[in-house]
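Data card: per-record layout.
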Amino acid sequence: MSLVGCVFLTYSIWSCDICGGVSGNASIGLLASTQFHMIGMKSNFNSYRSYLDGIVHSRERLFQQELTGRWQLAPRIQLIGSIPYQIGMQKRDLGTDIISGLGDPRLVVNYILLHQKDDDMSTRNFLSLGGGIKSPLGKKAPETSMIRNLYPGTGAWNISGLLVFTKRITHSISLQQEGICTFKTSDKSGFRYGNTYSYSATLVWNKKVGIGRIICGPGLMLEYFDASNNHGLPLEGYNNQGYLGEGQLNIHYLSYRWLWGMNVKQPIIQNFNEGSMKQGPFVSISLSYLITKTNKNELKN
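The structure for this 301-residue chain is written out next.
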């Protein structure tokens, strides 16, 4: 397969806003230059800590199971979607809240603008432009809820744009860069999370092992979150504004019919609500079944 220098599509900011709007869920698509259809499951875990006067006030843990899919509509057009189910838990000194339910479905359309290949059909340069939408169909918090961020749905539409560029450095190593901007609308009660911006850079390395390939991608991600508001007015006290810088590692094994994957993120620098909230490690494990449009002999090329 022509996998050298291809791009992992990492959509990290269509996740439910939690603990100050921090994106805690990543939907990693299949290598963008392949012609697979795909259906799979993904399990995610994330954790947060909230502080009051420097003392831990609460701990939040999120467990999420996603049904994911990808469809190659045309040689240059890909459709990627997911439906999440989430269990959120907040533990405080005086009690514990647990909320579960379906999250907001997400859909992304990705268009390949440029795909240059060498004579051996390996990718040299790759550029794609995508647009995504998150619909407010998941379980959302009541207007008077004091734990709004623990719910799996936000009750609002999100519209995102993403740009991905990959350039091959050596025969087996390429550099992927991705920029994402998400515009968030208000829910029915007038509450609106701030817009989110992110940039990531990842070194993608792959090696043939047996009948498949191991693909590894260490990298860095930076995210910035605008302030939230209510009916267009600034919030009293904390407004969920802040930034996050984290290291990440993607490890995947791709065979003829299956794609196994793991994604780990570890915050390096972060500042939300003047330091009153901190995000912990994020771990995601996925398994996808590949529906090929070609036969196995073609996949060997």
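Known properties of this structure: DSSP finds one helix and 18 strands in the chain. Helices lie at 296-299.

See the next section for split statistics.
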